[in-house]
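Contributing new records

If you add data, match the layout below exactly. Sequence lines come first and carry their own label; structure lines follow with theirs. Keep one chain per record. Anything else will be rejected by the validation script.
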Amino acid sequence: MTDMSHNLPTISVIMPAYNAARFIARSIQSIQQQTVRPLEILVVDDGSKDNTAEVAESCGDLVRVIRQANGGPAAARNTGAREARGEWLAFLDSDDAWIPTKLEQQIAALDDSTTLVHSYCTVDFTGPLTPAKQSFDTLWKRNTICTSSVLLRKSAFEAVGGFDTDRSIMAVEDYNLWLRLLHHGGQFCTVRERLVEYTPAPNNLSGQFNLMVRSELNNVEKIRQICQVDDERVSMKQASIYTEWGLALFHSRDLEQARDCYRNVLKRKPSMGAFMRWMATFLPRPILDLRRNRFQSQS
């Protein structure tokens, strides 16, 4: 790790960890190999049942381990933020890793008005869709910010109360925070480089569906109240959530849950396209697969 910290902002890296003993050393090492040295690495062991804390402590340089009872990633990040001594907070999940110049490139993009800077991930289909100027309205349409890419001013984080620890929005508590920051006048900056090696969650769409949709819809209701979003925009957002999940479930051939998604789309934003997709869920799977196989053979 190169020490280039003279006259640079101080950065506390916060890493929530739960049963992460198998991979946390790689994540910590990616921080220690940064071309700009952070002030500290705060690993918050969120009630792990394995030896996550011991592995983290053995990583040495800059690492401080904080143990707490299991409260979820939002609570763990808040704990780390309370303990942080840096002016800026950088978040990294325990199964992700940073490219060595991640902090250096993000620091170069900061100015006095910046609240948050983020970058792209190596596996990232939404990040590159980030507009040149991020606003509440653009982020409301789609979350394009990966938590492990974020560098956030600590004073702004504290001003909005940090992450919402309500487990009814688990998995989208980061999106909730970004929207609240923008609502309070935050200025976001994007470094258009792939600086994070992101580890996607296991691809079990059907298993994720109930949890994720419920969390996303609960988050919409929370943001509606906090940020005074009008009913029409809320309904459009709900339809967008169901459309996105409906398409993913349809392609994974979970036709029953895809049908339920499109039924909810039709309630909120009826269209011929949504109706046709709903009808398609009643087709026998062999016919759907025949069409898919024909398309693949032609491409």
